[in-house]
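Putative hydrolase of the HAD superfamily
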Amino acid sequence: MSKPVWLFDLDNTLHNASHAIFPAINANMNAYIAGVLRAAGMPDDAAAVNAARIGYLRRYGATLLGMVRHHGVRAEEFLREAHRFDDLRVMIRAERGLGRLLRRLPGRKVLLTNGPRRYAHEVLRHLGLHRHFARHIPIEAMQVHRQLRPKPSRALLRKILAREGIAARDCILVEDTVDNLRAARALRMRTVWVTQYLAQGPHAAERGLPTLRGRSAGVDVKVKSVLQLPRSLHRLRGMGKHGDDKTG
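Structure:
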């Protein structure tokens, strides 16, 4: 494996979004979805709203896509309303040493987040991590053939590989979401599952929090924290070559 290109997720990978940010986003989404359902003469109670939000997330990888496809909402409006915060700065929780970690890891780093551009910019600015990323790819930039294709879209990942000019085996996706890792692994990227911010318990999904699930076939390396990545480098390098590297 030559020097890799690292694709880093943001929420629940580089910081603890489950602490306060995800609950606020989910509340904002629920309020917005309720208004859309109500305007269409559809049930807008809590059960109907949660079913729409969680159902679209599971079906498309992002609630946004379901709202756009089935309710005709404008993507930019949905993202703006979902990411309204009184004071985002005080909601952010993250480990110390992230900057040192990113400097230590060999290769180029790209931020790949299903969050919107302004939100991702503000979180990285607060964490002091902007300078460590060669590129930022927020959800607005996840376009394939002029269609929005956020993670876990394989078409999106193929496009990123082509744009970066790299083989799949030289790319490492670092994520908290198993479905996204599985899509990357199917293209023969290396995958790292970060688990420390994932919720446990039967009601976590109902609250809209990402949950900790068992080890998946899409996971090469499982770590609790991104700070553990350096000790996993030898394993990731060893997985870098196994047959051809066609990405479909």
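The domain at 5-17+93-238 is CATH 3.40.50.1000 (Rossmann fold).
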